[in-house]
Give the backbone structure.
Amino acid sequence: MAKRTRATATTSTLARVNQTAIIEALRESGALSRQQLGAKTGLSPATINRLTAALIEDGLVVPAGQEPSTGGRPSVLLRYAGSSRLVAAIQLRAETVTGILVDFDGKIVFRRSVALGHRSPEKGDADDGDADQRSADQERQLQKVFRLFDDLIATADSMGTPCLAVGVAVPGVVQQPEGVVGTMPEFGWTGVPLGTLLRERTELPVVVENDANALAYGELHNGAGRGLSSLVALFLENGLGAGIVANGELHRGARAEAGEIGYLLMERSSLERSYDARGDLEDRIGSLALTQRARERGMPVPDSGSLTAEDVFELARDGNADAKELADEILDMVAIAVAALVIVLDPELVVVGSSFVGSSDLVIPGIQERLRGRIIRVPRIEPATHREDAVLLGAAELAAAEVNGFAYLAF
C-alpha cells in the first residue's frame, strides 16, 4: 500500500496566496503605497516589491500617482486594475441560455439571453424518427450556445478588453477536466463533450461546471460563505442539486456526482420503483412533477407550460389554498434533504438559490422551523447573495480562477 504524504505549499502556491493578499488589500482600501501594502498584509518589503512587480507585469496592478510628499521622496501608489480585464460566463437553463461579461471588479458590463426553444418530447428509444428529432434538437440548441459563446468573446474584443477565460454552468453532472456533461433531462442531452466542443472554438481557458457547484463556488469566494471553509449550496430550478464545499474546495466526489440530491430516497415506497433521468426527490418537487400536480389540482400554470417552486410560493402568497398546500409539501421535502446534508457534512452554512431566492423570507424560516429539535444543530441558512445572477457570477469566478490560479472578482 502506497504511503500517503502530507501536502506542502510550493513556492508558486505561496506566491499566489501572497498575491491574493495584496489584491485584497487594494480592493478594500483603494490605492496604496508598497509600504502601506506591507503594513496591511504583513509581508516583507522584498516580498512586496517582487510580487507587485509581477502583478504590474500581468496588468493586474497599475501605478496610481504618488503620495503627497512629507519632505522625502514621495511613494508611488498602486491600485487594482480590475476594470481592464474581463471573463465571460454562460448559464444553461431549461428554456434559455444567458451569457455575461464581467470585469475583475465584479461589474457586469454586457449581458445577452437567447431562447433555446422547445424540444420534442421523448416517446421511446425504439423509434428512430424520435431519436433523429432529438438529435436535431440537440444540435440546434448547441449551435445557439456556440453563437452566444462566440458573441461574448467578440464583444469583449470590440470593447478593447479581451476576454481572458470562459465559465459555463449546466444543470447536470460534469466530468472534469474534459467537461463532459451527463444526462440533462431538460435538454435531452446525455454525454455531450461540451468542454471539448467549446475549446475547439477558442484558445482561451474554458471551465464547464455543474450549476449548483458554480453557485457554491461563487458564494464561497464572493458571497455569504466568504471566509468560511465549508458550505452547502442548494439549487432548485427545473431540477434539484447541491454544491458542496469542504476544506475550502469544491467536493465533487469520485464520479463528480456528489450533491445530486434529487436522487435522495424519501420513504420506503421509494424502493418499489427505479429511477433513471430523475430521482425520487426530484420526482416530487422538480418542475415536471410540480406542473403535473398543479394541473391535477386546477392551479394556474405559466404560459411557458412549466411551473417552478418559485411559482408555487408566489401563488401561495396570493392566497391560493392549493398552492399553499403544495408549498408546504415542497418545504417538507427540502427540509428532509437539508437535514440529510447537514447530518452527513456538518457545513458552516447552507445557501439556498434560484427558485428559493425570491421567497427566501418564507423558505428559510420554513426549513428552520421543520428542522428545529429534529437534528443536532440547525445551521445558518441564507439566500444566495447575488440572487438570480448567483450561478452566472459563480461561473465567472471559476473562469477568473483559471487565469492565474486564484480568484480575482470583487463583487
